[in-house]
Amino acid sequence: MHSICLPGVWLNDYPNLVLGESEIMETHHGHLHTNRSTFSGKLGFVLSAAGASVGLGNIWRFPYLAAKYGGGIFLLVYIVLALTFGYSMIVAETALGRMTGKSPVGAFAAFAKPGKKSGWLSFGGWINAIIPLLIVPYYSVIGGWVIKYLMEYVKGQSSTLASDGYFSSFISNGVSAELCFVVFTLLTVLVIYAGVQNGVERVSKVMMPILVVLSIVIAVYSITRPGALTGVKYFLVPNLEHFSWMTVVSAMGQMFYSLSIAMGILVTFGSYMKKDISIEESTTSVEIFDTAIAIMAGLMIIPAVFAFSGGDPNTLNAGPSLMFITIPKVFESMGMGTLIGILFFVLVLCAALTSSIALTESAVSTFQDELKWGRKKATVVVGVIMITLGSLSALGYGPLAGVKIIGMQFLDFFDFLTNSVMMPIAAFTTCLLVSKVIGVKKIEEEVLHGEGTFRRKKIFNFMIKYLCPIFAAIILLSSVANAFGWISM
User: Fold this and answer.
1) I need a surface site. Which of 118, 207, 433, 455 has the fewest CB within 10 A?
2) What is the helix (H) or strand (E) element at residue 347, kind and residue range?
3) pTM of this prediction?
4) What are the C-alpha distances in Å from 224 to residues 217, 229, 303, 353?
């Protein structure tokens, strides 16, 4: 065994960070190199992390929440929180991953002191690791729905998609919904099978530029529709009269979706990040990318729906009903509705795939690290788990519609369990690990490694020690209370 000094972490202080000889490739002036997969550089990390962040949550959840909780004032609160809360959590998770070279379970366990009980560290690592494994199956079901709609638009069936009852008829057809889900899952698994640089990074480098271009094209088309400027004004201009406490709570909750916080993804991707890449610069790039896409999603959807509904924000319904019921009706009412429908669902498919790839990669990495499996075996096993759990959600509106958990169908239950319960707890444990066990000083040293900068160090220290844990607790309590009908959100 070698006693090695990682930048900012003395392995004598954390014995579990000592690596075996088989894992050590080279040590030079404190630089540790292992045989772990890596991103090729900053662009690879940024586009992969942004791909993880930019998903269905941005495209259907963000516009709905923005419309419901004040438009411009919601957007302003979200941006402020992204630059403080979101920034701090991205830096903490990425630094944790790069510091340890491990996925979440190993990263948390690395800081357990010998002879002391550290059950919460093990719990924190595993909850971060399990979340992607529970999210990606039902996420892939929705991805399957996207494939179905894209295929129908390509076949020129825009009027059929816009008809009343089409969506509910499709998802209640178990065979059709299951088939589309399996196709989406196989696309995801094939990318993961190819590896980090050849699969995850390569696909992100292609899909993210496509996503940006398409979002700009559709947004420009949307805001130039007659009557759309009312929606643009509502979305972009803050109005304090629309502000409420739920504006803040909802914006905080949205950040977990939008920035891939507390899903284990950023810890895993951080472990693939080379030491000479600036964590802060990369984090800033991800923030800008994600927020820009969220704004573009708002500009794609809110003005179009406002124009379609005559200015009624209540038509921006939550979840699937927005993207699979309202939006097709909006496109059908437009000129070139079929073309816009094709472009929109290509965009959504890119967003859905990059996020599902990131979620699956995090799960595969955990199997590799903890069970010492090869990538191919880990990918196949995770794929089987995805098919098994995802089938419950795919069939949950059809053959299994009568089976419910605490009054929820499978997809809704998995969504509630992961996003409303597990992710806030995972964020809380990460804050505790960074502020109480590792210490912000060592995180700072990791961030500053190489040619790194840490301009927002004071914001990070204050947020990670005090506000981030409080915010995570607020999200947990308010989400659970809302789910059980104790409060209305």
Assistant:
1) 455
2) helix 337-371
3) 0.86
4) 11, 8, 9, 29
Residue 399: CB atoms within 10 A of its CB come to: 15
What is the CB-side half-sphere exposure of residue 46 using CA atoms within 13 A?
A: 18
* CA distance linking residue 63 with residue 90, whole number of Å: 23
Cα gap 9→11, rounded to integer Å: 6
At 60, which helix (H) or strand (E)? none
Helix (H, G, I), strand (E, B) or coil at 56: helix
Q: CB under 8 Å, gap of 24 or more: what pairs does 455-459 form?
A: 455/280, 456/87, 456/280, 459/84, 459/87, 459/88
Q: What angle do CA 108, 114, 115 make, to 5 degrees?
A: 125
Residue tagged 């959600």 (tokens): 393
pLDDT band at 139 (very low <50, low <70, confident <90, very high): very high
Question: Tokens 């005559």 identify what position?
Answer: 310
Q: What are phi and psi of 27, to 5 degrees?
A: -125, 135
CB 265 within 8 A of CB 358: yes
For residue 74, which amino acid is it? F
In this model, does residue 485 exceed pLDDT 90? no
- Residues 415-437: pLDDT tens digits? 889 988 999 999 999 999 999 99
* Per-residue tokens: 132: 């992607």
Query: Do residues 362 and 341 touch, judged by C-beta distance below 8 A?
Result: no
Q: How far apart are CA 173 and CA 242, in angstroms?
A: 41
- The residues near 452 (Cβ < 8 Å, ≥ 6 apart) are 278, 279, 280, 281
String of b and e for 179-215 (b: at least 16 CB within 10 Å)? ebbbebbebbbebbbbbbeebbbbbbeebbeebbebb
pLDDT tens digits, 437-470: 999 999 999 999 866 788 899 999 999 999 999 9
Q: How far apart are CA 147 and CA 143, in angstroms?
A: 6
Stretch (H or E) spanning 195: none
Report residue 206 as tokens.
């292609």
Strand partners, 26: 33
Contact 107, 125 (CB under 8 A): yes
Residue 386, H or E segment = helix 375-394
